Amino acid sequence: MIVAVKPKPPAKHLRDGFDDDDDLKFQLPQSASRWKKRFYFFLHDKLKVPDILLMGLFSLSLKAWAVFILWFILAPVAHRWDLGTSIYNWHWLCYHPSESWAEASW
Description:
Layout: H1 21-24, H2 34-46, H3 51-59, H4 62-80, H5 84-95
Transmembrane segments: 52-74
Keywords: Membrane, Transmembrane, Transmembrane helix
């Protein structure tokens, strides 16, 4: 059996002027949209999602999440059609355009 135990904080007299808890709490910026605020409060207050996961969740843009989800949705299709090598070649062409075809290390 594996057990995780939260350590006890130091005594009050040792923590004078040390309020690191506020620095570790994730807070949305004031300019966040209304749906993001509602989603944050639902995750934080209702589901009790840890702050470190909320930081990761809200640090990515909506476009990045769309690409991330689309990647996993299309992975079975790429596997079924055996597109692995084509994807690698496409990646090489898109991100290494300065190299000429003669210098390519296939």
